[in-house]
């Protein structure tokens, strides 16, 4: 879906037109349904830089037809939903802090992968998240979470696939992290 060096990687096409926005830095996909969590850079129209007070907007995008049908029956014509407090604090939230000495760059920590730090910044006019994948610095494209139903109804993560495109050489990278 996302690109390296400001262009789309040939094999990473968006699965849904709603994901074909240059401001989307990356997404989280899950095995439970087709809905995704979107991490979209908030770009200041005047400066063309990430907004310093809130550089990243995180929200659900209901792409699963069952969810879309339920939304339409309720009269809801958009597929966007905000994360709730539990989702922000336990699963999909992100913390972005300015990096001292690097204007417009933010240290990024995902609740889902707290040990895997990233950087959020503008690259060739679009928001990009950089993260190490397979020991290489990459433009993060997506994270896929494979989970199964746990004993008390909460999903248990089996593994996570982190996908991206290397900054040097633009080769696709994928790393599996066991749950």
UniProtKB/TrEMBL annotation:
User: Superkingdom, according to UniProt?
Assistant: Eukaryota
Supply the Pfam families for this chain.
DUF4833
**Mind telling me which InterPro entries this protein's record contains?**
DUF4833
Domain DUF4833 intervals: 26-176
* Designated name of the protein: DUF4833 domain-containing protein
